[in-house]
Every structure is written in C-alpha cells, then in structure tokens.
Amino acid sequence: MALERTLSIIKPDAVAKNVIGEIYARFEKAGLKIVAGRMKQLSRLEAEGFYAVHRERPFFKALVEFMISGPVMIQVLEGENAVLAHRDLMGATNPKEAAPGTIRADFADSIDANAVHGSDAVETAKVEISYFFAATDVLSR
Ligand code: GDP
Ligand code: MG
C-alpha cells in the first residue's frame, strides 16, 4: 500500500446542486483526508491550461466553457492508494456507464456535466496539485 495524494475538483454542476458536503462525506467515509481545499472561479486560461492534454479533442471548447460556467471546489485528497480510491468513488466518465453508488452515477447529468474531476495517476496528480496549490497549502495530518 502507498500513501498518495490526488487532485479532486467538484465541477460547477455539482457546486450548483449544493452537494459539496455530500461528496466530501464520501471521501471521508472512504478513508481519504482533505488536506487542502479552496473554492475558485476558474478563468478561461486556467481551465485551458489545466485541461491542456485534451486541447486537440473535439470536446475541448465545451469542456472549458463548462468548467468556467461557475465556481469549482478544488481539493487535495490523501490516503492509501488515493488516486485509484478516488477514481473508484467517482465512477466512469460517462455517468450513464458509472456504477451505481458512485458520485457520477448519483450527481452527474451527462458526459459534459459530470460532477467531478480526479487525477488519473500519481505523476499526473503531482502536476495537477501544483497547478492549484503551493506546497505550504497542503497540510498532511
Ligand atoms: P475523466 O478523467 O474521467 O474526467 O475523463 P477524461 O480525462 O477522459 O476527460 C476529461 C473531461 O472531459 C471529462 O470529465 C468530461 O467532462 C469531458 N469529456 C470527456 N470525454 C468527453 C466526450 O466524449 N464528450 C464531451 N462532451 N465531454 C467529454
Ligand atoms: Mg482525466
């Protein structure tokens, strides 16, 4: 087992649905600790930079528009195998394919508005965490 950190974003649709607390409870019940967090209105440049790996994909423009459509809640989660544990809680990218009881199955409406983001690997997580947080903002305990 490995103690890992991962980046989680509660996207504008889920913030608008007022389910930040319900999603946080799922993280905590699964043994993940919230070790940094902030609410933020992303600028277009910030959203484009964060999703730069998807820049050539047909859905890129729609993804950026969605991510800047309202505030997001961004957090760092820490725990054993946090990257995969968090992806398991999230469910599949397309909520229609997400397993029952996952965050996306319960709170997401479509593949565009799919409630949450989670890093897909430890190395990606390091880059994504440093995109939003200084090392001193992450308070392991
Ligand atoms: P994730 O890691 O499960 O979030 O999925 P990806 O990294 O593959 O894609 C990033 C985000 O782009 C997803 O969470 C969706 O919001 C969006 N996205 C991915 N695939 C599609 C698609 O086929 N159509 C649209 N409209 N959005 C997509
Ligand atoms: Mg991804």
Automatic annotation (TrEMBL):
GO (cellular component) term, any one: cytoplasm
Q: Name all Nucleoside diphosphate kinase-like domain ranges.
A: 3-140
SMART domains (UniProt xref):
NDK
Q: What are the names of the required cofactors?
A: Mg(2+)
Q: Catalytic activity annotated for this protein? A: a 2'-deoxyribonucleoside 5'-diphosphate + ATP = a 2'-deoxyribonucleoside 5'-triphosphate + ADP; a ribonucleoside 5'-diphosphate + ATP = a ribonucleoside 5'-triphosphate + ADP
* Protein location: Cytoplasm
Give the positions the UniProt entry annotates as the active site: 117 (pros-phosphohistidine intermediate)
Q: Which residues bind ATP?
A: 11, 59, 87, 93, 104, 114
Q: Which GO terms describe its molecular function?
A: ATP binding; metal ion binding; nucleoside diphosphate kinase activity
Extract the Gene3D superfamilies matched here.
Nucleoside diphosphate kinase-like domain
Entry EC no(s) = 2.7.4.6
List UniProt keywords, sorted A-Z: ATP-binding, Cytoplasm, Kinase, Magnesium, Metal-binding, Nucleotide metabolism, Nucleotide-binding, Phosphoprotein, Transferase
* GO BP terms in the entry: CTP biosynthetic process; GTP biosynthetic process; UTP biosynthetic process
Name the CDD domains for this protein: NDPk_I
Name the InterPro entries for this protein. NDK-like_dom, NDK-like_dom_sf, Nucleoside_diP_kinase, Nucleoside_diP_kinase_AS
Its job: Major role in the synthesis of nucleoside triphosphates other than ATP. The ATP gamma phosphate is transferred to the NDP beta phosphate via a ping-pong mechanism, using a phosphorylated active-site intermediate.
| Annotated family | Belongs to the NDK family.
Summarize the subunit comment. Answer: Homotetramer.
Q: What is this protein called?
A: Nucleoside diphosphate kinase
At the highest ranks, the source species' classification is: Bacteria, Pseudomonadati, Pseudomonadota, Gammaproteobacteria, Lysobacterales
